[in-house]
């Protein structure tokens, strides 16, 4: 009887301990840390400052399925490098199903870079959400990467020079896409950027840009020439030099749809 009682009392405690051990996350505590365990959850345990001389100012994501929860803490960079990038050393790496959320990123060249090498785009399916990004060069850069979800970001003061960007796109961009398809860009706020709030670059098709708010930029939302079949709907872009711009002039706006947006200044009558 006593033995049975002890055994029954022990089992729930053992099960609870096992669950806690199985779900424990790996802490992010170092500048230059490599997040290289597939499917692992990584958590910040405090603010992380990576601007001192000799520190590596980037967190490297190097495995599929990595989840980064910043737990409300702040990452401060050196004003030049990216905070998070899919990279192994200097080379881009095509990684899938990565999630970054719930924190503040400041004083970096760019906040997050989804970077696929070569010229062929790949389905990467990253999920970046619920971040505050301020005092940076650029926010989110998506290069040759498809089917990513970017939402609930609050970005302001995108005014630092970002020497890591493409030659013609070096600074002041909130969210920028190049040769990237079927991305969902929803419910983000960009305020006070040197260049463009949301930029859908050449070769980018079937992207969904909805319900974003852009202000105090040169161009609020811009879709480049040779970007096709993109949907720009329900956004509010005001108090910019140009609120909305489609670079495809013949035919006007090409195959892009601009629907139910709020704006004052646009470069074409096909923008609604």
The unreliable regions are: 2-7, 14-22
Question: What structural class do the secondary elements suggest?
Answer: mainly beta
Fraction of residues in helix: under 10%
Radius of gyration: 21 Å
> Rough shape?
globular
Q: What string gives the helices and strands in order? A: HEEEEEEEEEEEEEEEEEEEEEEEEEEEE
* Count of helical stretches: 1
* N-to-C span: 77 Å
% residues in beta strands: 35-45%
Number of strands: 28
Average residue pLDDT: 89
Largest sheet: 16 strands, parallel
Explain what this protein looks like in three dimensions.
With 272 residues, the protein is mainly beta. It has a domain of 176 residues. 8% of the residues lie in helices and 44% in strands. It has a 16-stranded parallel sheet that branches. Strands 2, 5, 8, 9, 11, 14, 17, 20, 23 and 26 form a ten-stranded mixed sheet that branches. β8 and β9 form a beta hairpin. The longest helix is centred in the N-terminal third of the chain and has 22 residues. It is globular and about 50 Å long. The N terminus is likely disordered.
Key attributes of the depicted protein:
single chain, mainly beta, 16-stranded parallel sheet, ten-stranded mixed sheet, 1 helix, 28 strands, 8% helix
List the helices and strands and how they pair.
Blueprint: H1 2-23, E1 26-28, E2 34-35, E3 41-44, E4 48-49, E5 59-61, E6 67-69, E7 74-76, E8 82-88, E9 91-92, E10 99-106, E11 110-115, E12 122-123, E13 127-136, E14 138-143, E15 145-146, E16 149-158, E17 173-178, E18 184-186, E19 189-193, E20 196-200, E21 208-210, E22 213-215, E23 219-223, E24 231-233, E25 236-238, E26 242-246, E27 257-259, E28 262-263
Parallel strand pairs: 1-3, 2-5, 3-6, 4-7, 5-8, 6-10, 7-10, 8-11, 10-13, 11-14, 12-15, 13-16, 14-17, 16-18, 16-19, 17-20, 18-21, 19-22, 20-23, 21-24, 22-25, 23-26, 24-27, 25-28
Antiparallel strand pairs: 8-9
């Amino acid at each position: 009887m006593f033995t049975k009682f002890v055994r029954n009392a022990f089992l729930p405690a053992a099960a609870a301990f096992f669950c806690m051990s199985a779900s424990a996350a790996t802490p992010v505590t170092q500048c230059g840390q490599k997040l290289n365990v597939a499917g692992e959850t990584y958590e910040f345990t405090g603010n992380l400052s990576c601007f001192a001389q000799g520190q590596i100012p980037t967190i490297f994501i190097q495995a599929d399925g990595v989840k980064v929860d910043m737990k409300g803490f702040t990452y401060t960079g050196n004003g030049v490098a990216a905070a998070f990038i899919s990279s192994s050393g200097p080379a881009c790496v095509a990684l899938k199903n990565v999630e970054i959320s719930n924190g503040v990123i400041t004083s970096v060249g760019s906040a997050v870079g989804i970077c696929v090498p070569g010229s062929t785009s790949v389905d990467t399916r990253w999920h970046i959400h619920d971040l505050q990004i301020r005092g940076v060069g650029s926010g989110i850069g998506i290069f040759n990467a498809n089917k990513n979800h970017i939402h609930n970001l609050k970005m302001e003061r995108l005014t630092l020079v970002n020497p890591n960007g493409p030659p013609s796109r070096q600074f002041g961009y909130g969210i920028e896409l190049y040769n990237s398809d079927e991305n969902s860009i929803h419910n983000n706020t960009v305020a006070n950027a040197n260049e463009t709030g949301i930029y859908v670059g050449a070769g980018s098709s079937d992207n969904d840009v909805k319900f974003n708010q852009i202000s105090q930029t040169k161009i609020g939302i811009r879709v480049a020439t040779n970007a096709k079949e993109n949907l720009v709907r329900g956004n509010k872009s005001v108090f910019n030099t140009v609120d909305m711009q489609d670079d495809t002039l013949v035919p006007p706006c090409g195959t892009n749809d601009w629907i139910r947006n709020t704006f004052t200044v646009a470069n074409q009558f096909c923008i609604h």
